[in-house]
Design goal:
single chain, alpha/beta, ten-stranded mixed β-sheet, seven-stranded mixed β-sheet, about 30% helix, binds zinc ion
């Protein structure tokens, strides 16, 4: 009988086995996880059987290289299995193998028994492929090289700097999906993504983090004891004197010295902001670095601001670990959209349409309702009704219900019904809840908008209200940004285009274009927000709720195409936010 090795966590293994040399580290000698305590929470998810997927959106100064080394070491020495480390390019893969992995292996005594004679050159040990006597293997590949992604099954997949991956590996498709596919045979697989983020809305790591349980590292204030996530807005310094930079407590404004900040890091805790759904997500900005002092960041920030937008973007991405707001601030011309309206001749205009969604907005004297049809990549507004009457009386709700229960003729010959309706519960909340509970079987759901562009699009529903009604939180700003971007698409064949019917009046289009995105500077970093151009904006809100309703369905179009007409009964509750980011949903 072989003796099972003692079950260690990754951090325990690293503390027991890793040795750092003078060349590789400012702290030569035995590895100590306590030196950057937050690394423990990240690394130990890799030895936690409950976690299969790990997302790390971090600054570049928090010791990621050693985190990767420790994970590789653990899965070679302690829990041997086939591993793949995926770097953005083949060149980066080679460099990582030679500069990072090889020194770790040769400096860790535990590996001596596991490696063959390095003088024997054989196919089992190359820069990009290494085998060990206990059966462990490490492949190192470039995301731009489809060949290196095609072969052997793997249990541990480490995707590094994933925001620098190309959209497709050659003509083979998304490299992240190709790599993940190779883990399918292992029930105990680990899939991890590491990256600093890039542009907001286009960043892979940001999208993956949004799908995770979103853990942030909380530190207690030495003065008032309140736990907090360190934010750049709390770092202050005397004008033009970055060397005076200090962190200030969010709650009591007490100054933290670098020593106090580093002491706080040692006793900090990871706190998830969403329920765990199988994906552990970690966000960590550079303010947590125990290897730097805050004045270094303040100097870098002032320097970047002086150099210009591209330097500032690097600061935001690599120090703050936040996506850069690439905004377009120009407003949308109402009449340019109005002239696109067409007559659909009372039949849903496109055979590719699979889903109808509705959205409703409750006002003091009326309820407005919008119905949109969704094909795989386009939207058709097909119905718009205003039901007049006070929402405290039942008759206006009955009118809405009748409208939502009607069928819509489709070119396939099979009529469609509305699959999901989102109703804003911000006004006359009690009546909205009642209506939603009464019409739950036809997909009517209550929503509540939450501000802030960092929120996910459609959150997890919660019954945390007196009526025990399921209410879905919406990241309104994120969705609004997407609607405004789609309104700008002029080519009616292009993905994302929104079709409008010619029965809509000018007021609808004025409301639809009632807001524009503007840039506001917070400490010199551009933040995007919305500015109201006209007082009424219900049509824009309705479009936002409608898109959210569609997203909440996680619509599978191949399936829907097969069963047009049945979609209403079969639509499933979502298990998370669904965007256009297929590589996440295919995990
Ligand atoms: Zn405090």
């Amino acid at each position: 009988m072989t003796k099972l090795p003692p079950k260690l966590t990754v951090a325990q293994w690293a503390d027991a086995e890793r040795m750092l040399t003078r060349e590789s580290s400012p702290f030569p000698g035995k590895w100590d996880t306590g030196r950057a305590e937050f690394q423990r929470g990240i690394m130990d998810t890799f030895s936690d059987p409950k976690v299969q997927r790990i997302v790390c959106m971090t600054a570049s100064q928090i010791g990621k290289t050693e985190i990767l080394n420790n994970i590789c070491g653990y899965f070679v020495h302690h829990d041997p299995c086939p591993c793949l480390v995926l770097q953005p390019t083949l060149e980066m893969a080679r460099a990582w193998s030679v500069d990072r992995l090889a020194p770790m292996i040769s400096n860790t005594p535990a590996f001596r028994k596991l490696i063959g004679d390095p003088r024997l050159k054989d196919g089992d040990n190359t820069i990009l492929f290494k085998t060990f006597k206990n059966g462990a293997r490490i492949s190192i590949a470039g995301s731009n090289s489809p060949v290196s992604l095609a072969s052997r099954p793997i249990r541990l997949l480490l995707m590094d700097e994933i925001d620098r991956y190309p959209p497709s590996a050659g003509s083979e498709g998304d490299p992240a999906i190709l790599a993940i596919r190779r883990t399918q045979n292992f029930f105990n697989r680990k899939i991890a993504m590491f990256s600093t983020p890039t542009v907001k809305g286009e960043s892979r790591i940001e999208a993956a983090f949004e799908d995770s349980d979103q853990r942030y590292y909380n530190i207690d204030c030495h003065a008032c004891g309140e736990a907090q996530v360190l934010e750049w807005s709390q770092v202050r310094w005397e004008k033009d004197q970055p060397e005076t930079a200090k962190y200030h407590c969010k709650f009591c404004d007490a100054e933290w010295s670098d020593v106090q900040r580093k002491q706080g890091i040692k006793t900090g805790k990871w706190v998830a902001s969403k329920e765990f759904n199988g994906i552990a997500g970690f966000h960590l900005n550079g303010l947590y670095s125990p290897f730097s002092d805050l004045h270094e960041f303040a100097s870098l920030f002032l320097q970047s601001k002086h150099t210009g937008q591209s330097a500032l973007r690097v600061f935001v991405n690599t120090v703050l670990a936040e996506g850069w707001e690439d905004y377009e601030g120009d407003e949308i011309q109402t009449h340019e959209i109005m002239v696109r309206a067409k007559n659909y001749e009372a039949v849903l205009p496109d055979g590719s349409i699979g889903v109808l969604c509705a959205s409703a907005d409750v006002q003091a004297d009326r309820i407005e309702c919008l119905v949109c049809a969704y094909s795989k990549d386009q939207t058709y507004v097909v119905g718009f009704q205003i039901f007049y009457g006070s929402p405290t009386s039942i008759s206006v709700w009955d009118d809405l219900e009748k409208y939502l229960r009607q069928t819509w003729p489709h070119t396939s010959g099979q009529d469609l019904r509305v699959t999901r309706t989102f109703i804003d519960s911000g006004y006359e909340t009690g009546s909205v809840y009642q209506f939603c509970k009464r019409n739950e079987s036809i997909g009517v759901r209550a929503i509540k908008g939450v501000g802030g562009i960092n929120r996910g699009e459609v959150g997890r529903p919660s019954k945390n209200n007196s009526a025990r009604c399921n209410v879905w939180p919406l990241g309104v700003d994120t969705l609004k940004t997407q609607i405004l971007a789609r309104l700008k698409i002029e080519d009616d064949n292009a993905s994302g285009y929104i079709h409008f019917p010619d029965f809509l009046d000018e007021e609808f289009f004025l409301q639809l274009t009632a807001e524009k995105r503007i840039k506001r500077y917070v400490k010199g970093i551009p933040k995007m927000e919305f500015k109201r151009l006209r007082p009424r904006n219900e049509a824009l809100d309705l479009m936002v709720y409608n898109l959210a309703a569609f997203r909440s369905l996680n619509a599978n179009f191949t399936m829907i195409q097969k069963r047009l007409g049945e979609v209403r009964e079969k639509a499933t509750e979502p298990r998370g936010r669904k965007g256009t980011r297929n590589f996440i949903t295919q995990w």
